[in-house]
Amino acid sequence: MFAAENGLKGDPRLQAISDSIRVIPDFPKQGIMFQDITTLLLDHKAFKDTVDIFVDRYRDMGISVVAGIEARGFIFGPSIALAIGAKFVPLRKPRKLPGAVIAEHYVLEYGSDKLEMHVGAVNPGDRALVIDDLVATGGTLSAAIRLLERQGADVVECGCVIGLRDTNGESRLNGKPLYILIEPRQMDNN
Phosphoribosyltransferase domain spans which residues (predicted)? Predict the structure, then answer.
């Protein structure tokens, strides 16, 4: 579900967030229109509005865990977790976490990878939110959901700044709701 279709229609913050994201054509490979959020991070107001919209949505949902997907989910996840009183759990690429981990493989639109999480980072019954910057095919979010559920967490929702409507990524989320702030921009604005 897009934020504009869920009570934020006409909210000027969404347009400002969209306008602050730079599009890089043909990165990391030919045909990809990369949505570069580093320019969003340079815009203090747009960055704050992004976090605030998520916090407003999740503040009263009883979320006990915010799981951020490496690397850009680490940018938004900790701020959201602090604001709603939840713990932050990093979901990392292989061999980045010390200690015992569990892992899930996934497929991207331009390759495959694996996510890992510390064993014991979540507890049975924890109510989890998964955060990332963008959803395309849903492979990464799906792997995150599986990791959290294997440890007994209840994934309440996945939240992403940017969502691609035409890739049907939500269909891979095993029925979990998906909340998206904006649709991707198609051309470079910088």
Answer: 43-166
- pLDDT given for residue 187 in this prediction: 58
SS3 of residue 104 by DSSP: strand
Pick among 3.30.420.40, 3.30.428.10, 3.40.50.300, 3.40.50.2020: CATH of 2-182: 3.40.50.2020
pLDDT tens-digit map of 15-45: 999 999 999 999 988 988 899 999 999 999 9
Q: What percent of the chain has pLDDT over 70?
A: 93
In this structure, what DSSP letter does residue 161 have?
E
Looking at the predicted structure, is the pLDDT value of residue 160 above 50? yes
Asked about 5 being catalytic, the answer comes back as no
Catalytic residue list contains 95: no
Beta strands in the chain (DSSP E): 22-25, 33-36, 65-69, 87-91, 101-108, 111-118, 127-135, 154-163, 178-182
